[in-house]
Design brief:
Layout: H1 3-31, E1 39-47, E2 50-65, E3 74-86, E4 91-101, E5 103-109, E6 120-128, E7 140-143, E8 148-151, E9 153-160, E10 164-165, E11 171-172, E12 183-188, E13 194-203, E14 207-216, E15 224-230, H2 240-245, H3 255-261, E16 265-270, H4 292-305, E17 310-320, H5 322-333, E18 340-344, H6 355-361, E19 366-371, H7 383-392, E20 398-403, E21 406-407, E22 414-416, E23 419-422, E24 424-425, H8 431-435, E25 449-450, E26 453-454, H9 457-462
Parallel strand pairs: 1-12, 15-16, 15-17, 17-18, 18-19, 19-20
Antiparallel strand pairs: 1-2, 2-6, 3-4, 3-9, 5-6, 7-8, 10-11, 13-14, 14-16, 21-24, 22-23, 25-26
Protein name: Peptidase
InterPro entries: AB_hydrolase_fold (IPR029058), EstA_Ig-like_N (IPR041172), Peptidase_S9_cat (IPR001375), Plant_Biomass_Hydrol_Est (IPR050955)
Organism: Paenibacillus silvae
Length: about 475
Amino acid sequence: MNMKKSLLSGFLALALISSLLVSTNVSANNNAVSSSPLSYSLVTKGYDWGPGVYKIILDTGTSIQENSLTKDTFKVLAERSYPMINFQTLQTYDGSDSSSRAIEKAYLSDKNGNPISMSSGQYITIEMKVHPDLMTASPFMFDLQSFTNRYVDLQYTIIQQKSLQDQAGNVIDYLTTRPDTPHTMIEQGVEPFDLTGKFKHKDSTYGEIQLTYASYMPETSKKKPLIIWLHGAGEGGTDPRIALLGNKVTALADESIQKYFGDAAVLVPQTPTFWMNDGTGQYTKNGKSMYTKSLTALIKQYVKQHAADIDTDRIYIGGCSNGGFMTLNMLLANPDYFAAAYPSAEAYDDSLLTKQDIAKLKNIPIWFTAAGADQTVDTSKTSTATYKRLIAAGAKNVHYSYFDKVLDMSGVYSKGNGDNAPYEYNGHWSWIPVLNNNISKDFNGKPVKIKGKAVTLMEWLANQKK
């Protein structure tokens, strides 16, 4: 990012806000309407490409007439600040970017942002456009020093452009926010998860290892399967929210996936570095990970702590990229523990798998996913090669969904600039259709079936049992 350009955009944004604040204050004073303290919530949810702020819930402190509110009543300016580094000089500096957010609709709502049918109300919800390429909508930035996602410092300014009316007919012109306006962040989909999980393990080789984790446990008395997700390299750290939102992992607790399992517990472990760390801080060259024993211990302790809730014959493990590597690593370390696996864009070099390893894996139900456009992992040397060896070894329940590209399947996002073809994601991101459960075909292009019925990946996974 050009530092001068970034600073210039920041100064221009501040100038715009200042001028609008002055005009708004003058208007408010002229109408002699006293204002109640404003506050607002930024509402974020996970998308295929990561988290995005898509909604603002504005608490006006008064009762606004619905017929005075339009989509053009407000303008929204988003500014993000984050640390940057010049890799030539190793000097750090504050980076930033800003833009106006395109408003799609504005309406009266309850305090949770749900539309209301009443003619007046205290809360106004503003919905904004999001897009895979719209970086100012994201609360994350990719830190090139740690190669992980980090939260940015978000500053939103809600600028009132047109007057509103309260129930008494008074003009309301004071709803422009300031930097010190109280606000909160709501992360939809994260709420059902317990984010406090911490696990310490004394490893005989690597010393004390600390892992964090998020978990979800449905409130039902019956025993439930356990779905484990292992994140990619970019979601390492000590904040499990990043492991949930960096990819749309919150979907595992959604009804759209839960319905196949009849309710399932979800466990999302997080490494402070990356799963492929061989103990030296470098990517493994022999298939070993410093986290194998500690992750195994974490999973087994979690299962033991929830013995009354978890069906130990239905424990499923999967993950993406680094997490896909770790999925295979865990299967090899614990070949009789998991009922099935679902790695995507997995980075385990097939040349490191011995004949004995293949013999272990061939009896475990596995559904691989990858894309030919992957420029991060050479699929010909990882999932494709391993799948073919497993089939040749006589694997009866191993599947592989392989696409040319990773395309948007929602019908919402296109390439743009007049091209209505589906948006094309990074070819490495083959976990997108996994977390959307948009996978049903095997490597030969034919549907995967159970008892003659074509099934999706999640349907297949839910039917696996030790």
